[in-house]
Structure formats: C-alpha cells, structure tokens
Amino acid sequence: MSTAAASSGSNATFQTRSKPQEIRKANIIAARSVADAIRTSLGPKGMDKLIKTSKGKTIISNDGHTILKEMAILHPVAKMLVEVSKSQDIESGDGTTSVVILTGSLLHACERLLNMGIHPMIIAETFQEIAARCCQILYDDLALKIDLHNDYQTLVKAASTSLSSKIVNQYSHKLAPLAVDCVLKLAGDRPNVSDDDLTHNGINVDLSNVRLIKKLGGTIDDTEMVNGVCLTQTAVKLANGPIRMEKAKIGLIQFQISPPKPDTQNNIIVNDYRQMDKILKEERAYLLNICKKIKKSKCNVLLIQKSILRDAVNDMALHFLAKLKIMVVKDIERDEIEFLSKSLGCKSIADIDLFTEDRLGQAELVEEIDSDGSRILTITGIKQQSKVVKDQNRESTESFDQGISKLSQEKTNLQEKEKAKLNESGSDAASTKSTGGSNSSITEDTSGVNKENVYKRYYQQSTEVTQPTVSVIIRGANNLILDETERSIHDALCVIRCLVKKPALLPGGGCPEIYLSRKLTSEANLLSGSRQQCFQEFARALEIIPVTLAENSGMNSVNVITELKNKMAEGKRFAGLSARRTGSIDNVVEEHILQPLLVSTSAITLAAECCKSILRIDDINFSR
After folding, report:
1. What are the helix and strand counts (H, E) for the chain?
2. Which parts of 27-91 are beta strand (E)?
3. What is d(CA 295, CA 531) in angstroms, rounded to the nearest whole number?
4. Is 0.85 topped by the overall pTM?
5. Which of 567, 320, 140 is nearest to 132 (CA)?
6. Which residues sit opposite 302 in a β-bridge?
7. CA dihedral 256, 258, 263, 269 (to 10 degrees)
8. I need a surface site. Which of 190, 196, 257, 485 has the fewest CB within 10 A?
C-alpha cells in the first residue's frame, strides 16, 4: 500500500495542469544549454572549439553551424537550435552563432514571461510581431544602401568583418577581395541580369557555381581565383598524348573505353593461338571504332568519369586516342559531372552513339600548370552560349510545342480507339489482332511528326545555356588549416551574396541590437498589459549580443553597455563595440565594422520562429 501511495504521489504532478509548464521549462533549459555551449565563440576574439568526430577526424572551428552539426545532441528540442543554425547558414551564410545565442536569450525571456502567468501563445505571437517590427526599424533607420558597381571597397570591408573572427583573419586582406571578385563575376556575367537589377533590386547568386579546391603546400597567401575551371586530375601521359590543347572541343563521357565484361565472373578457356588472336582483334576493332566516332565529332579533349565496374580507359584505347591527337583526362569524380557540364556548356554522354558535336563544350585553352610544386589542369576562355533559344530559335520553339501537343493528342486518341476495339472483340485472337492493329495505327498516325526533331529541339532548349562558374585554389600547410580556410571563404562568399541579394549594410559591433533595445523600450512605454511586458523582455533579450561581444573581448560588459546606451541617447546612432580599441566607439562605420542587413534580419526572424515552435510544445511522447 505504501509503495502504491508513493508512486501515485510521484505521478501526481503530471496529472494536473502543471505538466505543460514543467515540459516547457525542461525544453527551455535544454535549448539554453546548447546556446551557452557556443556563446564563447562569438566575436573577433571568440574562442575555438576542438571537436573529435566518431570517425576520429579532428575539427577546430568557431563557426556556430560547424560546431553544432558535429555535436552529439540527443534532446529533440535542443536539436531545433541546430536546425535554426542550419537555416541561418542557408539563408545568409553568416551569423550562425549569433542566431543560436539570440534564440537562447529569447527563450530565457519567455521563461520570465511564463512565470508572470502570460499565456505561451500570446508570447509567441507578440514575439513574431516584434521581430517584424525590428526588421522594419533596421531597414528604415540603420541600413546603409550600397551600389554594387561603385562600392567595391565597401564590399571588401564587409567580407573582412566576416573573416575577423576566424583563424585566418590575418589573411583577410587576401581572402576578402577574392570572395568579392567571385560573387560579382557570377552576378555580373549572367545574361538575364541588367545593371538596374544588380544595383537596386538585387539577385540571388548560386554559390554552388564556386568550386573550392584544396591543395596542400604553400601558404594561405598563395590562394588564388582562376577565371575558368580547375581540375585536380591531370592529362594522361602514358601514351605520349597531348597535354596542351588550343581551341579545345571538350567531351564529357560516362561510359568506358575498354573491352566489355560480363555481369558475372566467368573464365574463358582458349584452346589455341588463333582463338586468342581473334579475341585480341575484336577488342582492337571495338576500341578503334569508339575512338574513330569520338574523332569524327571533332572532339580533341576528352573527360572520362571514374568507373568502378571496369577500367574507364585501357592502354590500347589511350594509344589510339594519342594517335588521333585527343587529350585525355580520366578519373573525373561523379559529383564533378554537374559542375563541369554547366561550366563548359557540354552535356554528359552515356553512350557512344550519342556522341555528337552539338554536345561538346568549347574553350580557348586547356593546359597543365605548375602550382607550388603540384600540377593542376586549367580550362580557360570558355565560350559562353546563352540566349540562343529565346532570341534566335523562337520559331523552332513554337514548332516544338506544336509537335509535343500533337503527339500527346494522338496518343490519347489512339488509346481510346484501342479500348473501343478491345471491347468489340469477343475472343483472345480478336483482341490480339486489334492490339496489333492499334500498334500499326500508332506507327501510321505518328509518321507525320518528326520525333527526332522534336527531341533535338527539346534537348537543345534545356542544355544550350552555359552558367558562369569560378574556381578557387586554396593553399595551406595542413588539412586543418585548409578546412578552416574553406569554411572562412564560404562565410565571406555568403556575406557578399547577401549584399548582392539585398544591397544594404548595417553597422556591426552590437550597434543594431542596442539601437533596437532602446527603440523597443520606448515603444513599450506606450503600451500596457502583457504586450508591454513582451516588448520589454524582447528588448532586454537583444542585449545578449553586445554583452557577449564585450565579455569575449575582456571588457566589463555592464560599463560598456551603459556607455553605449548613453552615446545613443546623445544621438550617436552608429555607436558600437570595437575589439581592436577594447571599448565603445562613437562610429563603427568609420572603423569599417559592417555586416549585411540580411544577416541581422534573418537571425531575429528565425530566433522568434524557433521560440514560437518551442512554446507551442506542452507534452513529449515517445513512439514504439
């Protein structure tokens, strides 16, 4: 009896209204613990984390998304902060640590508001309203509009601010202009983008068109951008084939130039030399036929995908290709096929019968170069093929659409005829005969439509547009430096992409958060009730960013925040923190401490949405 009473007493808490409150409290504690774990990594003087993965790999980084992605987080609500960091990385590429810290601070504010007895849905909806208001304030009061054509140095300064908190910050003078050049090349070389769009409206740049190649050796100062395509694979020299080709016509193949093998392992027993000679002659004729078809299409540079079933190209095929003056590059990785296809304007070819001249890419020069003791292959002067279909082949596009509609209409009519014939026939033979008649009718009815021309027009319409791409060769002394440099360049690229997407900058150094805190506090004085409390707590939570920056830089956070608020009260709206001067300054814009508007707005929006998702949870159940 006593045991039953004790168990009923222990479960009494969860049989009342206090269960949702306890669940929310536990969820908030779990999420805040994740935010506290990476709080020391924020800012230019933030600390790094050393992570050892389950596979034994060592990672040293202060990037919030990289740290959280590798951490073994088990709590389902704590994993939501990892997703918030991932969303911030996709949206803006920078601010992944800030968004997690801000989410933790807002959850702490939610905990205080819940203790006041305010309903969680009122808190969540008010927080989302405040986040939208914050974005509007930042755009109207603090945003610095920029011109992408004329403000090149401003873009470099924004990229340098992103790199200031990285291990490679001493090389920001090299990496920041490199990131700006990469993104502007991708944005400026697009055929459907006007100067007005690039200046005012902004465009979205796909960073998958920037290829980062890591090569050991040299220093980070040796990192360079190549205006073209770089390959770590080199030309095959086994058969004394060419290693340099001008006015190249490039073919990208996914089939093997080697004798075919059966699907299962079989042994062939040869009785005499005549059978052996016959086999070798057939192999030789098979390979020679493939090489002649490749040469017939006027291809002089051949890129061959790596094969796991059999040799992608054997020695005899290399001999034939060398005699035909065709440059061969083998062992192209599968994940490189898409990048090479859109960079070179060529289409990957899976069968020798489809190897035609219209599927080849064109470039001025393909050659091997020496780069700090290692050889790499560069493809430069790529011929851009754009605006071909819309401007020049409008009539062919219209006839293509008419052909497709005609084929689909005929297919529908034939299916109806076939059903009618099957219903009329009374025997299997008659049904078979009607089926045969319908097949013949398909051939007759569709004979007037040139299917091959329709397919070619469709194929050309989908592949004749070449996208501009950029390759960056990263140099470093060891793999840890290479990995961190790659992550740093990616963050800098994302910052410039944000500015191309939304051409506006914000002052950094905690300035936006302090400004928003003061603005929300003044607006809260005009409200009453639960909304007033929500505005005040949100304003208080925003101060976590400048407080953390001050603490990580060795400053007295209370004195610094008070000094910043006093300067802003005097009308110095660009006042902020400077880690170099170890204190507050009147104008962070003059110190070139800048960040994209999209980074701050997306961080505040995502943090408010995450808080709403967590506050809506009032129970956790486990499925079998």
Report:
1. 22, 16
2. 49-52, 58-61
3. 75
4. no
5. 140
6. 251, 328
7. 180
8. 196
